[in-house]
Each structure stands twice: as structure tokens, then as C-alpha cells.
């Protein structure tokens, strides 16, 4: 009986990792040509995204998160990656960017752009902006 209790306690302390979402690999993204590929070719190459820019119809966003579940504690997000593909008015790829989450801040991991103006950053700032800002006191009010 003691062995069963000990094994149950050990299993409860083992972290469980879960992945949510989808981000295309670098190999898949290398097939997308900035200035040449269109929405249709991007959809054929890497698939349609789970998120699309709401305010400007120019961006597709692929989001993947990794969570650690540890015993009775609430799940903790330990990694997040976003691939943002923006299109011009004609539906041609303008930018391909990969962002990561480092210390609660958005970090550009890779970027292929046709101009220096980064579009869609407001969506990413919104996505990452509230991370860690909500406290129990905010929820009570």
C-alpha cells in the first residue's frame, strides 16, 4: 500500500508539457518568397492560420504556445512563438517575421521584409501586452 502511495505522489510531481497551436517550420517558410508569393501560395505551402489581423486585413498570424502543468498548480506558459505574414493590397507577401517570448517581452527572432515599416505590430503588442499584468486584485474589482 505504501508503494502505491509513493508512486502516486511521485507521478503527481512530474511536470506534463502541452503544446497548443501551430507555427510553420523554417524550411516551410523558406519556400515563401517575399514580393512574389500570394495568399493562395502561402495557404498551399504552410496552411491557413489560426489568427488573422482584425483591424487590417493584411496579416496572417500563426501562434504556438507550450505550457507546463505541474501537480495541482495552474498551468504556466513557458514558451510562445508567433509567425506573422503580412500582405499588401494586392495579396502579395510583404513581410515574414518570427517572434518569440523572452522574459515577457516580444522579441523578433527572424525577419524578412520588403520595407522598414513593420505592419501588424499592434496585434502582436496586444497579444503579448497583457501577459503578466492581470493580478487577483484586478479580478476582484
Automatic annotation (TrEMBL):
<feature type="domain" description="Outer membrane protein assembly factor BamE">
    <location>
        <begin position="21"/>
        <end position="96"/>
    </location>
</feature>
<dbReference type="Pfam" id="PF04355">
    <property type="entry name" value="BamE"/>
</dbReference>
<protein>
    <submittedName>
        <fullName>Outer membrane protein assembly factor BamE</fullName>
    </submittedName>
</protein>
<dbReference type="InterPro" id="IPR007450">
    <property type="entry name" value="BamE_dom"/>
</dbReference>
<dbReference type="InterPro" id="IPR037873">
    <property type="entry name" value="BamE-like"/>
</dbReference>
<keyword id="KW-0732">Signal</keyword>
<dbReference type="GO" id="GO:0019867">
    <property type="term" value="C:outer membrane"/>
</dbReference>
<keyword id="KW-0472">Membrane</keyword>
